[in-house]
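Folds abound. Consider this:
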Amino acid sequence: MFTGIVEEVGTIQAIRKGVKSSSLTIQGELIFDDVKLGDSVAVNGVCLTVAAFSKNTFTADVMHETLNRSSIGMLKAGSHVNLERAMPANGRFGGHIVTGHIDGTGIITKIEKDDNAILYTIKTESKVMKYIVEKGSVAIDGISLTIAAVTPESFMVSIIPHTSKSTILSEKSVGDTVNLENDVIGKYVEKLMGYEQDANPGNNKSNINREFLTKFGY
């Protein structure tokens, strides 16, 4: 599990491509003080497993499913990536629950300044948008962010200067693709509501419905 608080920006050192998979070698600095084989590292929000490592690089294998669901396949040698190690049991929970399993990708359609903040508007498909709620959480390339506004096809986030300087968002342009992970709590709530309705098709006594959950930020 991750929190969406990026620890550092790393660099893709090498990519070895297979028929439907690839292997990434990533260079960094801060995350290597306790790295071990089998550790999980979020790379642009994608949970990857350390298969080999040296003093300041690690290698991870990327399977076909991950390449299909994320923007990892668009990376090149020299690309910068957001890096976060899995959250330790005694760590601070500064963001929100991030699993590292991407729900889909989005396209940046607008970038605009708002005093000291930068507003990013991102368009994505309906299967991702249905879990996007104003003032809720979303992980964009592994960055825990609060949703500022929502339309039927897009949403907007506001980036403070620290986040811009500490992540790869400052390098993004209109038209770029980003990885998106919805808040997992909303997905579990939807699933449980579905089970309740299946088990009690005639039971309409509960006050907990989609409007109630949306009102309170779920």
